[in-house]
Amino acid sequence: MNYASPQTVADARATGTITPGYMTGFGNSFETEALPGALPIGRNSPQKCSYGLYAEQLSGSPFTAPRAANERSWLYRIRPSVKHSGRFTKVDIGLWKTAPCHEADLPIGQLRWSPIPLPEREQSFLEGVRTMTTAGDANTQTGMGAHVYLITRSMQDEVFYNADAEMLFVLQQGKLHFFTEFGIIGAEPGEIVVIPRGVKFRLDLVDGPARGYLCENYGGAFTLPERGPIGANCLANSRDFMTPVAAYEDRDIATELYVKWGGELYRTTLQHSPLDVVAWHGNYAPYKYDLRRYSAVGPILYDHADPSIFTVLTAPSETPGTANIDFVIFPERWLVAENTFRPPWYHMNIMSEFMGLVYGVYDAKPEGFMPGGISLHNCMLPHGPDAQAFEHASNVDLKPVKLTGTMAFMFETRFPQHVTRYAAELETLQSDYADCWQGLQKRFDPTRP
Predict the structure, then answer these.
(1) Residue 380 belongs to some domain of the structure
(2) Which of these is catalytic: 281, 304, 377, 383?
(3) Most exposed of 38, 211, 413, 427 (fewest Cβ within 10 Å)?
């Protein structure tokens, strides 16, 4: 059994001494309690729960989903969620868009943005989400939204949950504390945090303003990819995923609850905090993962393996082998292949690729692609190394080289990604991005094999 101190959430925020506790493993059935005996033993819903708590189930999948895909947790809370509701009013959702969203009139082409500056004015997470692309249709639970977040203040007496999507945060600048119903998650750049659909949380800054990336997954939950012939080890190992121990907040104070539902934002006022889960058990819970623990594999003789070997998490679709979303990273790794053009090759892809750079330099685009930046290579639009990267990789001495201090990622989906008006009109959109391939010259000479 895992224990957390009573009223950890409130005490931690009040004192600023936050020491999150975690349980390890991906998709495990966990059990944890913040007060001894709060968790029923051998049953889910006793006639009377300890400490006067209410039993409540949160389901992330249909009741009849196969065991391997069935997601649910039992929560033992001070008030049931029906008391964390009320008369909702629609409020402005700002620049947060939801698929389907076809509002920008850009010609097709490869796109890249420089990092978006943090604003000088105060804005919380809810005010700071900026949608770059959308794909699919949230109403049919297919596709995704790709966003940046720009945060300059902590959420105060505000709590949020997303009914439209599971959320994957990729931290790029600034540490964050996620105060969730399930416990506290602390995260820093180089880590990701996944908040399941329907889970309430409050987001606080730790060491100043924060910027990062956010993927809304409208479809089935992220899971670990099958390793196939790789076998039982490497890639993202289950033991490195961390889920918080129980921690609750017992405060009778006015709290604004925000809910994203159907692409709209709604608000109601509660007279207490909804982060009041004293104990819980199950496999539907938030978690974090340190991308620097990813055990990369690759070719050790010649040629490339497909970039799918860098998949951290995948959200499957109804078509086997075709993801609704793949979350792919390009971390530190050795390059050792002989007689091989080592950067990613030139290609066109049925999948569409939203790429970001957390830190360092991306080897296929050493110029113009900066930490905090974004590129978009959509379905069946060609892309690959720029002219500088091609010349270097074609002529370099092919000794073993380690790429260090780098972390890039992709949100890759089977759906075309539609650019929002905000993204299309950003000053950081690099109008000359496609020129990076202009230096590629005709090299063909039929007289020289």
Answers:
(1) yes
(2) 304
(3) 427
Tell me the two tokens of residue 424: 């299309």
In a domain, residue 230? The reply is no
pTM above 0.90, yes or no: yes
> Residue 355 sits in which domain range?
295-431
Q: The tokens of 191 are what?
A: 């880590």
The confidence band for 8, taking pLDDT boundaries of 50, 70 and 90, is: low
Residues 72 and 85 sit within 8 Å (Cβ to Cβ): no
Question: Token digits for 393?
Answer: 């990789």
Per-residue pLDDT of 386-400, as tens digits, reads: 888 899 899 999 999
pLDDT of 71 above 90: yes
Is 304 catalytic? The answer is yes
Residue 1 has pLDDT above 70, yes or no: no
Residue at 348 is within a domain: yes
Please classify residue 115 by burial: count the beta carbons closer than 10 Å to its beta carbon, then call 0-12 exposed, 13-18 middle and 19+ buried: middle
In a domain, 280, yes or no: no
**CATH code at 322?**
2.60.120.10
d(CA 11, CA 16): 8
Sheet holding 129-137, edge to edge: 22-24, 242-244, 287-290, 191-195, 166-173, 210-217, 142-151, 129-137, 418-419
Evaluated on CA atoms 411, 214, 57, 179, the torsion sign reads positive
**Residue 56, pLDDT above cutoff 80:** yes
